[in-house]
Specification:
The complex is a heterodimer of chains A (about 110) and B (about 130). With about 110 residues, chain A is an all-alpha fold. Chain A has four helices and no strands. Chain A has one domain: Fumarate reductase/succinate dehydrogenase, transmembrane subunit (3 helical TM bundles of succinate and fumarate reductases, Up-down Bundle). In chain A, about 40% of the residues are buried. Chain B has a two-stranded antiparallel ribbon with strand order 1-2. Chain B has a domain of about 60 residues: 3 helical TM bundles of succinate and fumarate reductases. In chain B, a hairpin with a 2-residue loop joins strand 1 and strand 2. Classes of the chains: A mainly alpha (about 110), B mainly alpha (about 130). Chains A and B meet through helix 1, helix 2, helix 3 and helix 4 of A and helix 1, helix 2, helix 3 and helix 4 of B.
Chain lengths: ~110, ~130
């Protein structure tokens, strides 16, 4: 069987799609509506304590990294749909930006 | 000897031809807003790691009118992503139980239940 890197791209894509579907709307509801309206307050101590906890780190990383990868993969496919080629430039842009975001998220989380 | 393969020309605007193609393109474009919101979250993690003042500045920034407008756009597309993702799950991952296919509606309903549960847990964790 020919070696393929598709499962490696696909698994986080599918997982990211599910995580994005389940958790991203409520996160936006909090940061985009409830906090600006003053209904919720994301106090520094509480958020920092959550991010300091190892389980909290994993949850935050998953909530950021998986949807980011999902978005990168899907945008690459959509670029292909729009006739923008499946070339190296599009791949590098999509996976590169997502990879950078994921790396920065990991570094920031480890520094908390 | 190699020959150049024939590549059919694709009109950039093919997706405007039929309403269902437009809906498909909107569905795929949800990923742009999911990605942009992830970028906002990454900025938040960086600001969080820089201490209280940086974090408070981040909260003020995403609570500004521009921040809210951007996030309302993200929220609209994120919900559209959830709805379309749940709708295609039984087609992408059909499930068998005791040699019988699980009806699609059951799989979709389970996803909506999980969506509600996750949302409630996150809201409680955030202090509502």
């Amino acid at each position: 069987m020919a070696r393929s890197n598709k499962p490696l791209l696909w698994l986080p894509f599918a997982g990211g799609g599910l995580v994005a579907a389940l958790i991203t709307p409520v996160l936006i509801l909090i940061t985009g509506v409830l906090v600006p309206l003053g209904i919720l307050h994301l106090r520094y101590e509480a958020i920092a304590a959550f991010a300091h906890n190892p389980i909290g780190k994993v949850i935050l990383f998953g909530a950021v990294a998986l949807p980011a990868w999902h978005a990168a993969h899907r945008l690459r496919m959509t670029a292909h749909d729009l006739g923008l080629g499946g070339g190296f430039a599009i791949k590098t842009a999509c996976y590169g930006i997502a990879g950078l975001l994921i790396l920065v998220a990991a570094v920031a989380l480890l520094a908390i | 000897m190699s020959r150049r393969p024939y590549i059919r020309k694709v009109e950039r605007s093919w997706w405007l031809r039929q309403p269902r193609y437009v809906l498909y393109m909107i569905r795929e474009l949800t990923s742009l807003f999911v990605g942009l919101y992830c970028a906002l979250l990454v900025v938040g993690l960086v600001r969080l790691s820089q201490g209280q003042a940086a974090w408070d500045g981040f909260v003020a920034a995403f609570s500004s009118p521009l921040g809210v407008a951007f996030q309302l756009a993200c929220l609209t597309f994120a919900i559209y992503h959830s709805v379309t993702w749940f709708a295609l799950t039984p087609k992408a991952m059909p499930l068998m139980m005791k040699d019988e296919p699980v009806p699609g509606i059951v799989i979709v309903a389970a996803h909506y239940a999980a969506w509600a549960a996750v949302s409630i847990v996150v809201l409680i964790a955030a202090g509502i």
